[in-house]
Design brief:
Elements: H1 3-12, E1 16-19, E2 26-31, E3 34-40, E4 46-50, H2 53-62, E5 66-68, E6 77-81, H3 88-105, H4 108-113
Antiparallel strand pairs: 1-2, 2-3, 3-4, 4-6, 5-6
Length: 122
């Protein structure tokens, strides 16, 4: 997968928007205003997704292309390299997982207002 395919997939998820609030080097993908992915435009061979703590650790131990995200809370954010052997299916699964992690932390009123967000599963 490349960054454009990843961006397109992220934007296909319900209630997703994009912005460059961190500067022109970073594209942030948000669900209801909360970040679930970040693409570094100066290094398009990497991107960052949120992850459940235990799962994040497990992924890092299993895949050399998955590391703690630089300048993010390393307990929850993983950096994925697109230069390795990560399958497209795994990358899409990790994007959905990140989206799901963020949606689950949204206030109940917001989740209830957009039930299509809850249909996205890891």
């Amino acid at each position: 997968m490349n960054i454009e395919e990843i961006r397109g997939y992220c934007l296909s998820l319900p209630q997703t928007t994009e912005d460059m609030a961190f500067g022109e080097e970073y594209l942030l993908l948000r669900v209801c205003g909360k970040i679930f992915a970040c693409i570094g435009l100066e290094r398009p061979d990497y991107f960052v997704v949120k992850c459940a703590h235990d799962y994040a650790t497990e992924l890092r131990e299993h895949y050399p292309e998955i590391t703690p995200a630089w300048h993010w809370n390393k307990k929850y954010w993983n950096q994925l390299s697109l230069c390795g052997s990560l399958s497209d299916a795994l990358i899409l699964s990790l994007i959905r997982h990140s989206y799901h992690e963020v949606v689950n932390k949204l206030p109940k009123a917001i989740r209830n207002s957009f039930p299509e967000m809850l249909d996205i599963k890891d």
